[in-house]
Specification:
Shape: globular
Number of domains: 1
Low-confidence stretches: 1-23
Largest sheet: 12 strands, mixed
Number of helices: 4
Number of strands: 31
Oligomer: single chain
Structural class: mainly beta
Radius of gyration: 24 Å
Strand content: 35-45%
Mean pLDDT: 88
């Protein structure tokens, strides 16, 4: 973990204060005029808010962090749970109606940050040489505790700013994972199972914008290579293993000259024969951040992971808007935090390099 100069400066300043100076020196009061010439901010600040008859205590850490880290297996919230989201702590696993996945969050080969595979500008807009670490950048992390009648009911680790590559083979995800899909009509010509007229429309409409939003959904029936794309597509925020355009959500093309914007509704992971749902496991390196026109990314606010004993609203004190986290372990990727092209949505995102030694597990 690499801490930036702000933290280092604070540590040095504290060390200098402790170790330097005459032990007999006396403190002197500064005049108001002298105080005006100095500004500062606490390294740790504590905020307390009350929302919906609950107390929220946030410990803010004034830090900028650049990190590259790997973990073989991250499994959080491992207990039996019904498909409707209810926990069953007395279940032995043989009961009907249980979630197939054993944990709320299950991320294999989890990583934050990458290693540059060639010389060039990376996702943060900085130039790196091949072999250099391209960090995951975190600004102003915080720990927040939720209490009800002075009893702790939740804790979350969040970031006021986050940008970088999150890598994982996602087997189970509980939380929010909204993905903006933005491209041009020309890209529809590469859609799988497309009817012939999609090719014609893509050629005629060319650079006309197409947009939609994918979320965690139920997958189609079947097995790999033989899915029934007339099933699935229902919102599924608990232990999801698929992502796609939910039933009835719009797939927009436009504006088109003299016509305007046309909205098509998806149905059961299908849009005119084109699959609109995909396994989470094919997206193995995801750029977190606000995508720019040059394909670099700016930090976004709202990334957090939390644990709560009941469904709980976590508030943003700056906007008073809340994210509802379900009981158990929860991961929130903020709206606008991930944007994909159509080809990336259809085909997935390959794993980027996160190790210096090739262990033959696809991380080199």
């Amino acid at each position: 973990m690499i801490l930036n100069g702000r933290v280092f400066a604070v540590i040095c300043s504290v060390g200098s204060f402790i170790g330097v100076g005459d032990a007999s020196a006396e403190l002197e009061q500064l005049a108001d005029m002298d105080l005006r010439e100095h500004t500062g901010q606490a390294f740790i600040a504590i905020d307390q808010n009350r929302w919906e008859n609950r107390d929220y205590i946030r410990v803010n850490l004034g830090m900028d962090i650049a990190v590259q880290m790997n973990a073989d297996d991250v499994k959080l919230g491992e207990y039996h749970r019904y498909e409707n989201g209810d926990a069953c702590h007395d279940c032995n696993g043989s009961e009907s109606g249980l979630e197939a996945q054993p944990a709320d969050l299950w991320l294999k080969n989890f990583s934050l940050g990458t290693i540059a595979e060639e010389n060039g500008v990376q996702s943060d807009g900085q130039y790196y040489q091949a072999g250099q670490v391209v960090p995951f950048n975190i600004t102003d992390p915080y720990l927040e505790f939720a209490l009800e009648d002075n009893v702790p009911i939740g804790i979350r680790l969040g970031f006021r700013g986050a940008q970088g590559v999150l890598g994982a083979n996602i087997l189970s995800l509980t939380g929010n994972l909204p993905v903006d899909i933005k491209d041009t009509a020309r890209a529809l010509r590469d859609a799988p199972n497309r009817p012939w007229w999609i090719d014609v429309a893509g050629a005629l409409l060319g650079n006309t914008p197409v947009e939609s939003k994918a979320q965690l959904v139920t997958g189609p029936n079947g097995s790999a290579g033989n899915y029934d794309y007339s099933t699935g597509g229902i919102l599924d925020p608990v232990r999801a293993s698929w992502i796609g355009i939910p039933d009835g959500a719009p797939f927009s093309i436009g504006p088109i000259f003299l016509i305007g914007t046309i909205n098509f509704a998806t149905d059961s992971c299908n849009l005119f024969g084109i699959p609109t749902c995909f396994p989470l496991s094919i997206y193995q390196s995801i750029d977190i951040g606000e995508r720019q026109n040059d394909n670099t990314y700016k930090p976004v606010d709202g990334l957090f992971s939390s644990f709560q004993t009941q469904d709980l609203n976590w508030f943003n004190p700056d906007t008073a808007r809340a994210v509802t986290a379900t009981q158990g372990a929860f991961l929130n990727i903020p709206d606008g935090g991930i944007e994909l092209k159509l080809s990336e949505a259809f085909n997935g995102l390959p794993r980027q390099r996160v190790e210096y030694i090739d262990r033959g597990v696809g991380l080199f």
